[in-house]
Each structure stands twice: as structure tokens, then as C-alpha cells.
């Protein structure tokens, strides 16, 4: 999942960015409200974590602007404003979830995963395809019940393909989902990840549509 984090507190923002990355998220962090208002066109985000007290533009104004732009991006409001009126106002303004500070990283991650499942129309936390099962929470993939040794990028690619079963994902979209701002991307990195997954899951598990992209093939 690629997440847009909008938080002006340096300690909180850095902790969230590092913690979520360790849990398998791709995180882009902004600290200015005006930049955040126009940020959704920069990448195909799966969700946003939005603080309310921001320099440049208040979080509620950012949320309103996103909704006026027609964005249905799931938004988790994360703020010190925990009064009932603030929570109700945020949800009525278009937020999908609301979490007051202080918070636990595990809960932020769980709420983001729940928002992502809801957007994808998935009711179950586990993803499966034939004999393969992926647990996005535990970051573990199994084949016939046996754990697979996968790198963080291979896990992220596998999760992306499983969440888009039946769809063809262009190369550019996959790269945008797997790599955040400032993360170096070698020209053949995606092909290497696909090659390694095919070796572990079978040659037909990922189909290449030349000039178009990748999609799930035969179940493992």
C-alpha cells in the first residue's frame, strides 16, 4: 500500500513513516497543508493519514478540497482534536476514519489495512490464489501451508497483484505503488522481482502482456 502522510510534527511524522515502512507500507510524507492539497495527483495512493493542525492550510480544508476534486481516497484523520464535535465534523466532512493522538502504530496500520480492504471490496484479511495464501498483517506468504522466503519488495508486489486479481497492471503503475519519493529504482528492478516470484510460485503465476503490463496467471 502506498500512503500519503500529512503531519507537521517532525517526531510523529518521522516515527510514522519509519514504522509504517517497516510494516510493508510505502509512505510519502508532507508537512505543509498547501502542498498536501495538491498532492493526490503525484502518485496512485491507497489511503492518506491526515493531521488537522497544519501550516499553510488546515486539515479540514485539505479534506474538503480533496472531496471537491472528486477523490474517493480513504482518509484516516489523525489529530489531537479528540472532542466529539471534532470527530463528528471530520467524519461528516468526508473522512473515512478518525484516530486521536496519542496512538499506537499497530492501530494506525490496522485501520489503514481495513480502509484498503473496504475500498477493494474485500471482506477477508487473508489473500489467496490457488494454493497460495498471503497474510498482509503478518507479512507471510505460504504455499500449501509452508512459508515462502520472500523479500519485502516481493511481498509488496505479490500483495498488489492479489488485490488486483483479474486486472492488468501497467508497469508504471506497479512501480508507483512499490516505490515512494526518493527511493532509487533500477531500470530492471521490476523484472527481477517478477522473475524471483515465478521461480518460487511457478512460471505461469504471473503473466506478462508485452507492452501492457502484468496480471495474475494460473494459481500456484
Automatic annotation (TrEMBL):
<keyword id="KW-0902">Two-component regulatory system</keyword>
<dbReference type="InterPro" id="IPR011006">
    <property type="entry name" value="CheY-like_superfamily"/>
</dbReference>
<dbReference type="InterPro" id="IPR001867">
    <property type="entry name" value="OmpR/PhoB-type_DNA-bd"/>
</dbReference>
<dbReference type="GO" id="GO:0005829">
    <property type="term" value="C:cytosol"/>
</dbReference>
<dbReference type="InterPro" id="IPR036388">
    <property type="entry name" value="WH-like_DNA-bd_sf"/>
</dbReference>
<keyword id="KW-0963">Cytoplasm</keyword>
<dbReference type="Pfam" id="PF00486">
    <property type="entry name" value="Trans_reg_C"/>
</dbReference>
<protein>
    <submittedName>
        <fullName>Two-component system response regulator QseB</fullName>
    </submittedName>
</protein>
<keyword id="KW-0805">Transcription regulation</keyword>
<keyword id="KW-0804">Transcription</keyword>
<dbReference type="GO" id="GO:0000156">
    <property type="term" value="F:phosphorelay response regulator activity"/>
</dbReference>
<dbReference type="GO" id="GO:0006355">
    <property type="term" value="P:regulation of DNA-templated transcription"/>
</dbReference>
<keyword id="KW-0238">DNA-binding</keyword>
<feature type="DNA-binding region" description="OmpR/PhoB-type">
    <location>
        <begin position="124"/>
        <end position="218"/>
    </location>
</feature>
<dbReference type="GO" id="GO:0032993">
    <property type="term" value="C:protein-DNA complex"/>
</dbReference>
<keyword id="KW-0597">Phosphoprotein</keyword>
<dbReference type="InterPro" id="IPR039420">
    <property type="entry name" value="WalR-like"/>
</dbReference>
<feature type="domain" description="Response regulatory">
    <location>
        <begin position="2"/>
        <end position="116"/>
    </location>
</feature>
<feature type="modified residue" description="4-aspartylphosphate">
    <location>
        <position position="51"/>
    </location>
</feature>
<dbReference type="InterPro" id="IPR001789">
    <property type="entry name" value="Sig_transdc_resp-reg_receiver"/>
</dbReference>
<dbReference type="GO" id="GO:0000976">
    <property type="term" value="F:transcription cis-regulatory region binding"/>
</dbReference>
<dbReference type="Pfam" id="PF00072">
    <property type="entry name" value="Response_reg"/>
</dbReference>
<feature type="domain" description="OmpR/PhoB-type">
    <location>
        <begin position="124"/>
        <end position="218"/>
    </location>
</feature>
Amino acid at each position: 500500500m502506498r500512503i500519503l502522510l500529512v503531519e507537521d510534527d517532525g517526531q510523529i511524522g518521522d516515527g510514522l513513516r519509519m514504522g509504517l515502512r517497516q510494516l510493508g507500507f510505502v509512505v510519502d510524507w508532507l508537512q505543509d497543508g498547501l502542498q498536501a492539497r495538491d498532492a493526490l495527483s503525484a502518485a496512485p495512493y491507497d489511503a492518506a493519514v491526515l493531521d488537522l493542525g497544519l501550516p499553510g492550510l488546515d486539515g479540514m480544508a485539505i479534506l474538503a478540497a480533496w472531496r471537491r476534486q472528486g477523490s474517493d481516497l480513504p482518509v484516516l484523520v489523525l489529530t489531537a482534536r479528540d472532542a466529539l464535535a471534532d470527530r463528528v465534523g471530520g467524519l461528516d466532512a468526508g473522512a473515512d476514519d478518525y484516530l486521536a493522538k496519542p496512538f499506537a502504530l499497530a492501530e494506525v496500520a490496522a485501520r489503514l489495512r481495513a480502509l484498503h480492504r473496504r475500498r477493494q471490496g474485500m471482506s477477508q484479511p487473508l489473500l489467496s490464489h490457488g494454493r497460495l495464501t498471503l497474510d498482509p498483517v503478518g507479512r507471510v506468504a505460504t504455499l500449501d501451508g509452508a512459508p515462502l522466503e520472500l523479500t519485502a519488495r516481493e511481498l509488496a508486489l505479490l500483495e498488489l497483484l492479489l488485490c488486483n486479481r483479474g486486472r492488468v497492471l501497467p508497469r508504471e503503475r506497479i512501480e508507483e505503488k512499490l516505490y515512494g519519493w526518493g527511493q532509487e529504482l533500477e531500470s530492471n528492478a521490476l523484472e527481477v522481482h517478477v522473475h524471483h516470484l515465478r521461480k518460487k510460485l511457478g512460471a505461469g503465476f504471473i503473466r506478462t502482456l508485452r507492452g501492457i503490463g502484468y496480471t495474475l496467471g494460473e494459481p500456484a
